Amino acid sequence: MQFFSLVQCLGYVACALGVTAFLQKKDTRLKGFLAAECAVYTAHFWLLGNPPAALSAFLSGCRSGLAIKYRHWLMALVFVALNLGLGILFARRWTDVLPIMGGVLGSVALLTMTGTPMRVVLLISTLCWLGNNCLTGSVGGMLLESFNALANGFTLARLLTETRQAAALPSASPLKKRQSSAPAAPQK
């Protein structure tokens, strides 16, 4: 295996885009970088001779781009059906199920979820892709999904910490302010 061949260099570019994606706290930026990552990933897997992974990466890129503006369970259903239908059509061995499941989970996450739940399902999707990349021999892909899992986990931890900190702040509800500023009733 040549670590600096064109096909592996494409994997490294996808790796950089993917790490950048999962370091984003804003969902729209995450989805934009994921779309770019998937475009590069499509060529990478095609050149590695893994059509199911290339197809799933292509569908994932389309889905990620559309998910910037649109989020609906019907769109998720379409992408799940495309991933399953075309994945089964192109699958040659049992390991081809990994990128297909990664694409299915990513579609459900990006098109029906937001925030922390979306990132948890994306983490499971990432683990499917990591398994595929290990079996395919994609050096950049292995790095990408390893970093994606770490970056996504790091961002999940940051979001959960921020959520806990926000929940710990005293509430500034008007009712509490009114009650605290009302004069005390005379005691008898």
Give a quick set of tags describing it:
188 residues, mainly alpha, globular
Brief synopsis:
Helices cover 79% and strands 0% of the residues. With 188 residues, it is mainly α. The protein has one domain (6-156).
Please explain how this structure is put together.
- This protein has 8 helices and no strands.
- The chain has one domain.
- 38% of the residues are buried.
- It is an all-alpha fold.
- The termini are far apart.
- The model is unreliable at 177-186 (pLDDT under 50).
- It is 79% helix and 0% strand.
- It has helices at 6-22, 27-47, 51-67, 73-90, 97-112, 115-136, 139-168, 174-181.
In percent, how much strand structure appears in the residues? under 5%
Please state the overall shape, judged from the principal axes of the Cα atoms: globular
SS elements, strand count: 0
* Distance, first to last CA: 89 Å
Return the string of H and E elements.
Answer: HHHHHHHH
Overall pLDDT metric: 87
User: Roughly what percent helix?
Assistant: over 70%
Radius of gyration: 21 Å
Category by helix and strand content: mainly alpha
Number of domains: 1
| Poorly predicted tracts of residues | 177-186
The largest β sheet comes out as: none
Number of helices: 8
Tell me the layout of helices and strands.
Blueprint: H1 6-22, H2 27-47, H3 51-67, H4 73-90, H5 97-112, H6 115-136, H7 139-168, H8 174-181
